[in-house]
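Exam revision sheet. Question 4 asks you to relate a sequence to its structure. Input first:
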Amino acid sequence: MSNKSLHSDLDIDALIDDRATRIIVCCGSGGVGKTTTSAAIALRAAERGRKVVVLTIDPARRLAQSMGIEQLDNTPRPVPGVGSDGAERGSLDAMMLDMKRTFDEVVLSQASPEKAQQILANPFYIALSSSFAGTQEYMAMEKLGQLHRDAQASGQYDLIVVDTPPSRSALDFLDAPERLSSFLDGRFIRTMLLPARGPARLMSAGIGMVTGALSKVLGGQFLKDLQTFVTALDTVFGGFRQRAQQTYALLQASGTAFLVVAAPEDDALREAAYFVERLQGDRMPLAGLVVNRAVVSDHAELSVAAAVAAAERLETAPSDGAGVTAGLLRIHADRERLVARQQALRERFAAAHPQVATIVVPALAGDVHDLDGLRTVGRLLAGPAAEA
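Answer key, C-alpha cells:
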C-alpha cells in the first residue's frame, strides 16, 4: 500500500545515513507499533551500512520474534540474515534490558569481589534490583551508557536504537539521575550512614539511641541488613549516579535523536503531544513524529456522499448482485470517513506543533513477524522516495 499521498517531511533515511547520529530513541504510548518501528529503523540502518544495536526495554517478545531470535537478553546478539557481506552492508545486534542483571553488573564492577557478594545477597538489594519502582528506568540509563561507552571504545557499533517502555513511563528514565540523587541524599539515608561517616565519639550516643529503638521494633538482623544495604548504596552507586547524569547529558547531545511514535487516534496523539512537549521542555533533540497504521484512500474520487447515494439506489434494485455492490460501496464510504477523521486528527496535531516533522505510515494488511515485514515497514518509514 503506497503512502505517496500522505504528508511526509520527516526524512528517516537522512537521519540514519547521518554518521553524526549515534543514538535514536523511540518513545510513545502502548500499542502504537513502537517496537516494530524501532526494529525496522535498526534493520534499515544496518542494511544501509551502519553498525547497529537495538535495545528494547519493552518486555514484549515481538522484537525477538520478528528478528528470528529465539530469546533476547542482556547481551547483544547478532540478527540472522543481516551481516557485513559487502562494502555497504552493516551489522545488526539486538538485546532486551534485564534490569536485575544490569544492576548486578553495576555492583560487580564497582565493588571488591567480597563486598559485591555481600551486596548481591542482601535482601534489601534483591528487592530493589528486582521490583523497586523506577529500577527499570535507572537501569535503562545504565545500559544505554554502557553501550555508548563500549561503542566508543571498541567501534563495534556506530548507532544505538532504543525502544522504550510503553505509556508515559517511557520518559521516566529522563528523571532517573535526579530521582536517584534525591533518594541517596534523603534524610533517612543520611541518618543511616552517620555511624559510618561521622566521628564515632560524636555520633555514637545519638545514633545508638536510634538504632537501639529500631532494633527493638524491626529486629537486629533486619537493621544490620538495612545498614549494610544503605552503606552499599553510598559506596557503590555514587558512581552510577554520576554515570546516569552523564547519560542524561548524552541524551541532550546533538548526536541523539528522539522519535515520538503514535497512531492516528485521539488518545495516542494526545499522548504524543505530551511526549513532544516534555522532550522540548527538557531540551532533548526531537527528530519528529511517526504516525503508524494510517488508513489511506483507495478511490478518493468517489466521495462518501456519492458512494452512499449509489448504495441506496442499488439496494432498491431487483438485479442480482446489487446487494453485494451496495455493501462494498458502504464499506468504501466507512473507510473514507475514517480517512477523513484520521487526517483531521493529524492536522490538529500539526496545527498545535507546526515545528514537528512528521511521517505517516500506512497500515499493513497483516502483522509484522519477520525480517521481510520489517523491511517493508522500513521502506514505508523512509517515505515516497523509497517507494518509487
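Marking note for examiners. The mean pLDDT is 80.
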